[in-house]
Amino acid sequence: MMRPANIVTAVSDILAGIAIAGYFSGDNTGEIQALPVTLLVLSTIGLYGGGVVFNDVFDAELDRIERPERPIPSGLIAKSGAALLGGVLLFIGIIAACFVHRSFLPSGLLAVATAVAALVYDKWGKHQSLLGPLNMGACRGLNLLLGISILPAALYQYWAISLVPVLYIAAITMISRGEVHGGKKNTLYAAALLYMLVIVAILLVSFTNKTIVFSSIFLLFFGVMIYLPLRKAIQDPKGALIGKAVKAGVLALILMNAAWAAAFGTLSLALFIVLLLPLSLWMAKAFAVT
Description:
Layout: H1 4-21, H2 34-58, H3 60-66, H4 79-98, H5 107-123, H6 131-148, H7 152-158, H8 163-176, H9 185-209, H10 212-235, H11 239-251, H12 253-263, H13 267-274, H14 276-286
Helix pairs in contact: 1-2, 1-6, 1-12, 1-14, 2-4, 2-5, 4-5, 5-6, 6-8, 8-9, 8-11, 9-10, 9-12, 10-11, 10-12, 12-13
């Protein structure tokens, strides 16, 4: 229920945010501590895990018809037990974020906002044609900001970057609605455009930071990973191919986050983030992603 492969991508969001904040840069090396990083990683595991568990809780009745193999409709876990698990995970995510700094702000507040955004999407947002994808994207944008909050001052400087994952996840959410019954080519073309805007945004930041050579390498692999399955789905927009495009888009977040780390000059962290991809792909073989 927790979508382990997806949780790995959420961890990569946090690491990208930490890189954007400059936590591992030369100017901050004397203040680097492992505990804040660990707490933020634990926080995103709880927040993402709790969010997707509640997604299944709210979808239990629909899944009995469309996806009876899922844990709740199959009887593997009771709906009440799943709700308890989701609540505990969200609580852990919020509490972990509250201990990153000496006060509730800003990490604790961002964790609460992320949890609220996830629950709103699970219950209401997913049923809205326009606001739904933006709602889902906001969850990822807030997650990136949670990583950046390791250095609170960086939030004021780099908050706008969180709009990029909002666009990207909105695109994935748009096309994911065709996983069961098939989709429309116009929606897939719109997603392709949004993907391109994301790549251009990272390239512009890289150009400004004079790191475009390194970030371009990660973006090349990112582009291949997202566009190849999307191209097949555009040619034949049936549910199975759309599902593969969605799955690739979610897992490719790791490469996008590696590109962000490279764009902000933290190449070693970018390489570490890439190492999360094989782990996520391995988990994706055993657990659901979409």
